[in-house]
Amino acid sequence: MYRFLLSRQWVLVTLLALALIPTMIELGFWQLHRHEHKVAQNTLIADNLKAKPLPVTDLTSPGHTVPQSDYWRRVSATGTWDTAHEVVVRRRTAADGRVGYHVLTPFVLDSGPTVMVNRGWIADNGNQLDFPKIPAPTKGKVTITGRLMADQTTAASGIKDVKGLPPRQVMLISSAQQAKALGRTVLGGYIEQTAPESPDDSPELIPAPDDSSIGPHMAYAVQWWLFSAAVPVGWFILVRREKQDREEAAAAPQAAPEPAAA
């Protein structure tokens, strides 16, 4: 009755179905893990943004790698700006999608070391060869607040650390690179400035990260699991249909052979 399942065609169909089921289940769990990661990240962002600012030296030190638990942690720093050694980070986008630079300025702490500060975004005005004109920050001693961020890497950001750039331009924010260029002690990671704001809103401060959107990953997980459940149902329907077609063909009256010509 079901001997047709041993045919080459049906063996291939069955093997394909057996392969699809665990694959779709695994894809569902992959999306579930992405959902859980996003939820955990949103919780971390919300908690760190609500926390009271700590002195930046409480959370990082020279050569320190900022752990994920401290990403976006609010910090404060008191010192003076060193705009003479300011650099710009290429190919960065504003909140509205415009492409330009991030302004990276050394900030010399009263306690001695330097911390790199991302002061925000400026336009490139269509010229990526000349160093842009950047509004100067407040002179003298100042206290800033911001979000503590880890050094950027190609592996984490997907941005290649291109060499041979015009003077005072970089692709990634790296405290180690800046310490080497400056010839002084620099704290690990950097500060993404949130206050004080520039009088003319230039550089544009970087908006706080989104901590509310969880994305479509959970919906995708459910879809993959539904697909995995639909595979055996579809296979069973195809088998029943094939069986019925074969039974109907066997029960159909055979046409009488035509008489031989005289």
Task: Give an account of the 3D structure.
There is one protein chain. The model has no long low-confidence stretch (mean pLDDT 92). By secondary structure, this protein is an alpha/beta fold. It starts with 7 loop residues before the first helix and ends in an 11-residue tail after the last helix. It contains 4 helices and 8 strands. Helices cover 34% and strands 21% of the residues. The relative contact order is 0.19.
| Structural class category | alpha/beta
Characterize the overall form: elongated
What is the number of beta strands?
8
Determine the mean pLDDT. Answer: 92
Arrangement of strands in the largest sheet: 2-4-5-8-6
Low-confidence runs of at least 5 consecutive residues: none
Rg over CA atoms? 31 Å
SSE sequence, one letter per element: HEEEEEEHEHEH
Residues in helices, as a percent range: 25-40%
